[in-house]
Amino acid sequence: MLTTCARRFGHAESPVAALMAVAHSLEVSADSLYEAVARGLAAFRSADWIGEIGHGQTIITAVVKQPEVEQKVRMRDFEAWLESNGRSPAEMALKPLCASF
After folding, report:
1. Half-sphere exposure of 19 (CA within 13 A, CB side)
2. Measuring CA to CA, which residue among 54, 71, 63 is closest to residue 3?
3. Which of 7, 14, 39, 57 has a CA 20 to 30 Å removed from the CA of 82?
4. H-helix or E-strand containing 92?
């Protein structure tokens, strides 16, 4: 899965797009959309040259390689998902993993 991050001035293969039209991308392996977002954010946050990643309206784009599928997630939706109750045992198990990134 590919994650990309765009930023106002300093962000992130899950793609993320922000206001300065600066986009960074990297490739991560994940079993779900939100796990890809979490892994991508963790990788971007560990890179000193990325800078601050926005919240709220910042968009992260995830591209599934096989078959290729692209999805976009607002940071506020990802953060709300992390804070919500899981709807299944699998989702409940995934949230702590994603939050740990």
Report:
1. 8
2. 63
3. 7
4. helix 89-100
CA-based nearest residue to 14, from 46, 47, 49, 39? 39
Q: Where are the domains of the chain?
A: 2-100
Q: Rounded distance, CA 7 to CA 1, Å?
A: 20
The per-residue pLDDT for range 14-72, each reduced to its tens digit, is: 444 444 556 778 888 888 888 988 988 888 888 877 777 778 888 888 887 777 888 88
3-state SS assignment for residue 87: coil
pTM above 0.85, yes or no: no
Give the pair of three-digit tokens for residue 26.
């990297």
- DSSP-derived 3-state class of residue 38: helix
